[in-house]
Design a protein that fits this description.
The chain is α/β, with parallel strands linked by helices. Helices cover about 50% and strands about 15% of the residues.
């Protein structure tokens, strides 16, 4: 039995496209929004998990536009989440991800290791595995206290599985955040190289999208 550790964003779900689509439907002044986002990120310690919290971005945006109220913040944030989840739900359905997870789960243990805050990631995972049928555990950087590429989340996965590093296959879209730390611990890995980067030439399995994942896994399973 293999242990397969998935990243979530832009690995299982097309999150970056989803973020952009959701933002585009909010009628924001993007010059002000980008200022708000930059303010949040620079006000927090480097690598802070909260730096990805859209509620913080929207709170600062509303403050800068002199339209802040708890009601407006909740309205803007929940509208954003709704638009994002609509997009990701269609993406997951189109790629028939449920079928692949069901197939992999028959003989393997699956888990998720993801950056970002717990609330947003659970909303996304609810699209992928609402009944908790596929994943034996989920680890978010908010729970760990540090983000990938810090090794702590990877080590927690090993502790949860109580297995050797060579028994784990890491699947992720970020070479720096997913593949390098996994390789440093001795995990096997599959890099979903969405941007078709040719910067890294080390020995690894590299694919261009989720649709190639099942075939790539045959090398390990």
């Amino acid at each position: 039995m293999a242990r397969i550790l998935f990243d979530l964003d832009d690995t299982l779900l097309a999150s970056e496209d989803g973020y952009n689509e959701a933002y585009s439907q909010l009628n924001l002044d993007f010059s002000i929004f980008n200022t708000a986002k930059k303010h949040v990120k620079t006000s927090l310690p480097a690598g802070a998990v909260q730096s990805h919290n859209r509620w913080l971005y929207f709170k600062k945006y509303l403050e800068l536009t002199k339209s802040y109220s708890p009601e407006n913040l909740i309205s803007l944030s929940t509208k954003y989440e709704s638009k994002l989840l609509d997009y990701l739900s269609k993406d997951w359905s189109n790629k028939k991800g449920h079928d692949l997870l069901k197939k992999l789960k028959k003989k393997n243990s699956l888990a998720i290791l993801t950056n970002e805050n717990l609330r947003l990631q659970i909303l996304k995972i609810n699209l992928v595995d609402p009944k908790n049928e596929f994943f034996d555990f989920t680890i978010t950087s908010e729970e760990v206290g540090v983000e990938k590429p810090n090794l702590r989340g990877f080590q927690m996965a090993l502790e949860n599985w109580n297995c050797s590093a060579e028994d784990v296959i890491m699947i992720g879209d970020s070479y720096e955040n997913d593949i390098l730390p996994a390789k440093s611990l001795g995990f096997k890995s599959i890099w979903i190289n969405l941007k078709n980067s040719s910067d890294h030439h080390d020995q690894l399995i590299k694919i261009s999208g989720f649709n190639e994942l099942e075939k790539a896994l045959e090398s390990y399973l």
